[in-house]
Specification:
Elements lengths: L6 E5 L10 H7 L4 E4 L8 H11 L5 E6 L1 H12 L4 E7 L10 H20 L1 H9 L11 H11 L3 H12 L5 H5 L5 E6 L7 H10 L4 E5 L6 H4 L1 H14 L5
Parallel strand pairs: 1-2, 1-3, 3-4, 4-5, 5-6
Helix pairs in contact: 1-11, 2-3, 4-5, 4-7, 5-6
């Protein structure tokens, strides 16, 4: 029977959908009620977080976000800390867009991918985008094709909205500094987008935070190493007192 004490909200990353959490849903469905966040055409992290808070029925829940979903999870915590029993950030970060050359390069890179999607279609863009994002052993596999198909289900308008959200992302470091619930930080050892050093820096902000670096894994950890990710989430949920 559903209860607030057994609800886990999973937030997907940029252009991802339920597929990114498929293995975690299968592994955890007996332990908790799972809700997958959906962002539609929303184009600000703050609006995505508000939508999550409006649409999740449970008054209190554990919250996990992957990549952009981690940014949304942090904003959920900023807006309604009393509702979050525990936070898990997978392959994510806290910093806003840099105001230097690195920020200019990020903006240019994201808009180049958007232009490619508009010009040649989402699947062409996905194949170019996913390859450097994952561990090289994923290239050319059925798993790679699942990732491409997931992204290709979206469209350039949604891509543009989510790019806007990421380029205007708020500084979430203050949220971590005031965190008062169990925190899991997890990333792939070979994640080039949100590397281990970024997660170690986040761990230093939160005494007692758990850090898991997943071997043989790039940025798409829930799909690349699903068993390791599910196991880490189970341990975190136990620390949250959040399994039934």
């Amino acid at each position: 029977m559903s209860s607030a004490a057994s609800t886990l909200v999973l937030l997907p990353g940029l252009l991802c959908d339920d597929e990114v959490w498929a293995e975690q849903q299968a592994a955890l469905y007996e332990s908790c009620d799972i809700v997958i966040g959906r962002f539609g055409m929303l184009d600000r992290i703050e609006h995505m977080a508000s939508h999550v808070l409006r649409t999740v029925a449970a008054q209190r829940f554990a919250l996990a976000g992957h990549s952009m979903g981690g940014r949304v999870a942090l904003e959920v915590l900023r807006q309604a800390p009393e509702r979050v029993l525990g936070l898990a950030l997978l392959d994510s970060g806290v910093a806003p867009l840099a105001s230097n050359q690195a920020g200019d390069e990020e903006r240019r890179g994201r808009h180049e991918l958007l232009a490619l999607a508009q010009r040649e279609g989402m699947e062409v863009m996905a194949r170019q985008w996913v390859a450097p994002m994952v561990h090289p052993d994923v290239w050319g596999t059925p798993l790679f094709e699942r990732m491409v198909a997931m992204i290709a289900r979206s469209d350039p308008d949604r891509f543009a909205a989510q790019i806007n959200a990421l380029l205007q992302r708020p500084d979430a470091e203050p949220v971590l500094r005031t965190l008062h619930c169990p925190l899991l930080l997890l990333c792939g050892q070979q994640d080039r987008w949100s590397p281990p050093d970024r997660h170690r820096a986040m761990q230093a902000l939160v005494p007692g935070a758990a850090l898991r670096i997943i071997e043989h894994c790039g940025h798409m950890s829930p799909m690349e190493q699903p068993q390791a990710v599910s196991g880490a989430l189970v341990q975190w949920l136990m620390h949250c007192g959040h399994v039934r």
